[in-house]
Amino acid sequence: MASSDPKQISRREFVADATKAAAAFAVAPTIVPRHVLGRGFLAPSDTLAVACVGIGGMGMSNMSALAKGGERIVAICDVDFPYVERSIAGRFRQWDGKTADDEADARRIRDAYTKAAKYADFREMLDKQKDIDAVVVATPDQMHATIAHAAMRARKHVYVQKPLTYTVYESRLLARTAKETGVVTQMGNQGHSFEGTRRIVELIAAGVIGPVREVHVWTDRPQRYWAQGIPRPGSGKPSPRSVTQAATSDGDSDAPRPPRRWNIRTVDNAILAAMAEDPQTPPPGLDWQLFLGAAKDIPYHPAYHPFSWRGWVDFGVSAIGDMGAHLMDQPFWALGLDYPKTVVSTSTPWGSPSSDPGSYPLAMTTQYEFAARGSQPPVKLTWYDGGLTPLVAPDIPRPGGDGGGGIFIGEKGYLTYETYGDNPKVYPEALAAAAAAVPKTLERVDVPHEINWAQACKGQGRASSPFDYAARLTETMLLGVVALKAGQGRQLVYDGAAMRVTNVPEANAYLTREYRAGWEL
User: Fold this and answer.
1) What is the pLDDT of residues 77-116, one digit of tens each?
2) Is it true that the peptide bond before 331 is cis, omega within 30 degrees of 0?
3) Are strands 134-137 and 117-119 parallel, antiparallel or unpaired?
4) CA neighbours within 13 Å on the CB side: how many for 364?
5) Which of 63, 165, 224, 235 has minimal Cβ neighbours within 10 Å of its Cβ?
């Protein structure tokens, strides 16, 4: 008998409940006249038919927001449906003891999942299912551009999670394709729609803190979230005994002992030993080749999937790709920035791409220099991640929030903000009255970021963060990774108009990537 306790729901119970819901849905009419539905309800013809690609993580939240907003989830594509179903079942465990809204959200997700057609391969989905109006892409970074490009070429509106793409070239390609096809696009940097970000733009434009020549932005990622700075699984696979046993010439050589010396190689060996136990066989239900997609062919390991893919060079673009869209967005928009003139990155110890470092470094910093824009002076923007923070304005309270923030340094004062642009504040306090007097001139987005996009797809307003903006922001973020790969502390001079590094020709190879056969863009 199925348990009524949400904490005890199993995957078997989830599937059984889902099957019942699917049977009920199968006999229900799909097209209902508006007058039958009654006032306040939308007929299917008035809603967006959405396909979601990748729903095991953030894509599930995107799907929930769209379903709650009344849009129809008609197709779901994922390479690991057992993981998706475990995640959905987990939603029911999580809402116990919370609010009715949490329970409603869990049921909404399960119902949308149950009713939608299921696919493992997005290419098959786009080829077979002709009722799709729009596509949400929330896969690992290495497949964002491939899926979004195919969807736009099929004339589908597209919402893509941040970062928009894996490479600079792909950002240019998606922006160009969006313009050519005329579809409605949005990147999932939801803070762009938030009140705080829009207020920052207004305060900077009004000159409350004066001309800005310097901005500092930081995040604690990947600290506390995913592993970086570790060797790739399979890089030697020493046994646990070889890690814990001292290399001595006396005593019982079979007895596990702590190593005589701890150094970076000892730590690497310990990590590799911990990762060597898995046979590297994909779990049932995971299509590893489809997960890889455009990435090079490497063996499966649970260190890559689920979630922790972001720290690995093959799949993600590190913390600057994860959080740059939520933290660099505000200065990029408020200061009217475009492509940087120079970029330089430094990090904790890290090998070169040719040496296959596996994961990104524990922490990095990137410094960008932007040219003057009209009456606005040149700007130097510095990014910090991995828990590093700037040593500026010691008398200014650091913003709290979600492990990161930013500081604009103006001639008259400072403006601080939290992740997503939340809680902007100006200093010194003498500027507070001037800030309060600045009128609200930007349009406010009073719906979730996903619904803003869905409404724009139906001709109801404009998308908040379309690709013509999001691609330039993403390219700027990714240039930090390009500089990291080009060499520690090596400043790159960038010609944005030509999409070319002019002083280090070999760095141009990192503006794109090698695609696995059959996945070229």
Assistant:
1) 999 999 999 998 887 776 555 677 778 888 889 999 999 9
2) no
3) unpaired
4) 31
5) 224
